[in-house]
Amino acid sequence: MTKKLLLKDVALLAGVSEMTASRALRGAPDVSQKTRIRVEEIARSHGYVPNRIAGSLSSQSVNLVAVVVPSLNSFVFPEVLSGISAILKDSPLKPVVGITGYDVEEEEEVIREMLSWRPSGLVVAGLEHSEATRKMLQQADIPVVEVMDVDGDPVGHCVGISHLEAGRDMAELILSRGYEQIGFIGTKMPQDFRARKRFDGFVDGLAAQGMNLHDQELYSGDSSIETGRQLTSSMMRRNPDLECIYYSSDVMSVGGLMHCLAEGVSVPGDVALAGFNNLQLLKGLPLEMATTDACRRQIGERAAQIILQARAAKSDMGPVLEVLRPTISLGASL
């Protein structure tokens, strides 16, 4: 385990007193800009986070669990939060949420600010972080759980699914249904690392059976039913012989279904559709959509359980890596 960096270590590296380093990190006006910048850069590059809990509380933590997610606009991360909240409900700990907008630099700032208040644990979505963020997570003297993804190098505890395998599994299923002219529509590319991994796994799964994507649309904006409808319309105009479309999210696949219903296109007779996440919004549609259940609530529950276990075990608990297995629902659209 990486030795926790203390304020005195930052001061030593910067060649200033501990008091000067503290004042520099607080932005005190009597510290020169040159000194402040040097101290801040050393703190950042070594993953040191100032402690904003004052005086006698400085060695303690607050009963909050920081939860850092890319967005609350979709239905995906609220289910993770529901799982975390359900487990923490009967404990002294309560979740507090930070939003990164799929931006690694914003994630760095959000995590730095949250850690400065010394929470009792931190849950963060994903494995891809800036180098400064990784160092902060390594230095954090609290349980840190990265969630949603296991395709990478976790800092410590990790709970999620393999998005590469999820993409490969869907490719195998689609090919087993006899489809050959296959398209992919994805959003938040390339900021959403997990969606990109599903795309890569999907392409790999097709290639393993000698097939290539017939068309693709990697859209940089957010998922929405309207966007799914528009991109489906464009792809089907370009490719009248298209047989199947795999979407990076259920929200987009619902938009695809809306386009087909409006244009009199039979699903799956004329074109098959499949999404990802098994969102609640699929319930009640005129057609049961093919999708993959990504275990979102279970991931939140396990992350909270690990934080409670690690907190009880103090330093006696090693890193946990828990890989959940997503399940595909064939529905009636494939």
UniProtKB/TrEMBL annotation:
SUPFAM superfamilies: lambda repressor-like DNA-binding domains, Periplasmic binding protein-like I. The keyword Transcription applies. It comes from the Bacteria. Residues 7-59 form the HTH lacI-type domain. Keywords: DNA-binding, Transcription, Transcription regulation. InterPro entries: HTH_LacI, Lambda_DNA-bd_dom_sf, Peripla_BP/Lac1_sug-bd_dom, Peripla_BP_I. PROSITE patterns: HTH_LACI_1, HTH_LACI_2. One of its GO terms (molecular function) is DNA-binding transcription factor activity. The keyword Kinase does not apply. This is LacI family DNA-binding transcriptional regulator. It comes from Parasedimentitalea huanghaiensis.
